[in-house]
Amino acid sequence: MENVILEVKDLTTKYVTRFSEDVYAVDHVSLKTAEGKTLGIAGESGCGKSTLALSLMGYYFAPLHYISGEIRINGRNISSMDPDEIRKTILGTEISYIPQAAMNALNPTQKVIHFIEDVIQAHNPKTSKKEIYELARERFEILGLPADVLQKYPVELSGGMKQRTVIATSVILCPKILIADEPSSALDVTSQKMVIKMLRDLMENGFIKSMIFITHELPLLYNVADDIMVMYAGQIVEQGTAQEVVFDPLHPYSKGLMNSIIVPENGARGVKLSAIPGTPPNLKKPPQGCRFAERCKYVQPTCKTHEIDLQESEDGRAYRCAFSQNYLRKAYKNG
Amino acid sequence: MAEEKKPCLCGSGLTKIYGTGVQKNVAVDHVDFDCCQNEVISIVGESGSGKTTLAKMLLGLTKPTEGEIYFQGKKRDISNMKKKKEYWKRIQAIFQDPYSSFNTFNKIDAVLLDCIAMRNGKKYTRAKKIEIMEEACCFVNLEFDELTNKYPFELSGGQMQRLMIARVFILKPEILIADEPTSMIDACSRATILEMLMKLRKEIGMTIIFITHDIGLAYYISDTVFIMERGKIVESGPAEQVILHPKEEYTRRLISDVPKIHEEWDLSSVKYG
Question: CA A101, A102, A106: angle at the middle one, nearest 5?
Fold first, then answer.
């Protein structure tokens, strides 16, 4: 049996806007990550990827509110804990988060080592500066960062270096799960590769046990993740292994995403890119029935009236579409 | 191609040096290049290779330290503001960050009306102006009725980038410089933006200079590719040839750094720098 690190059941969270409207940005999401595995989350801007990441930490502050569902880390339910307790006992030690613009997370007036001291002393106030320095130096060296980075100010580092510094700092307490929210989207391809290599090193060295990787770059996700979850309008529309989702997508939305992949490979030039027409629905008033119906090529009248549940396909994958697997595959083949 | 190739924008010995003395930094180092009419060329390189500096020089936003730029066969003359404005009617740009491309105090109408004015449309009737704006918005799949009286920051990144393209549609320049137009928006909107650029190119027969660090994108979109490393162009040629049969070590590295789906992505060779 594989060792489940994080298990989420039916998590629903909402934003409350200025005008007291409810926006359900994460809508009944269930997921699991096992030890040594990376879960990838894909989807376009505004589909709830980042909100899901924030919700997973159990650290809610307005306008984000928790509604229902369970978050279990190693069997311990954190969804009902109060924020102060979560900050003290969960963040940093159990679950850690790298935000999208991680390079802005460093304080420009402090040296990197001060930043690390802050992180460690928040959890173990008795640790001495010398111990922290030794730990940080050792950790940085394993992760391929020169030790002199510790004595530098953030402005002295390049973008990729800053990003890697933030990652190394966020895992200094060996959290069980690392949530990486678009860690490389502001970097060029060369620095991106270094960041990905570093994330993989973290896993191999056992500094983290499992990772959730969020991005909209599908070729990247395919190379990083073991399993992929596709989100649309706050809901999961498809779940499967990376291989399955990229090469044999079931949901029409996943299929649309796969058609927007650009790679420098022979034969990629002639392929016509096809964008998904339209825009995602306004979640203040989610449409009735399938949320993707408005933009779906294969839409039927019943799609717009019936709520569709996540269903299990014959080979154990989950997708949210009214049609059968065979029907969809045939439809994609015929264009 | 059977049609005759007319050189449209050429640079010879372009150099830009920032700072002096110890601080001296050669951003662009004796670059020669030319692009022909109705061609899509890409300039590819990693961060800090001088791509954007080159684009700024071509746009006339920074003065080259050395070298000349030839526009339509003649030496470019933008010595005064009037000539500069005249030049900008013929060469336009889309920048990387849509969020900072617009003046936040101006409504979207003002942005588009400005473009109409630039095309000597100041004296058009209100109805005619609205017609032009509607046409432009329709071209990029935006609804003018929804945009009017809004401010740019109320739009999403993809919408803003499309609005930039709508501007270009009204201005109909001869050359468009697109500086990483898709790096800040998601993969799905990226396909839309690329599709629109290509449509626009067909519609008004425009030359596109595409600047990117994503070699996959360059391969997909361009006819000719220039690879830049530390301010120098190290390799150039037709996209097929450069990307599928790269000669330079640097080009090979750039290609191997892009995650692929049919070939294995080798992480073991990564050196932390």
Answer: 120
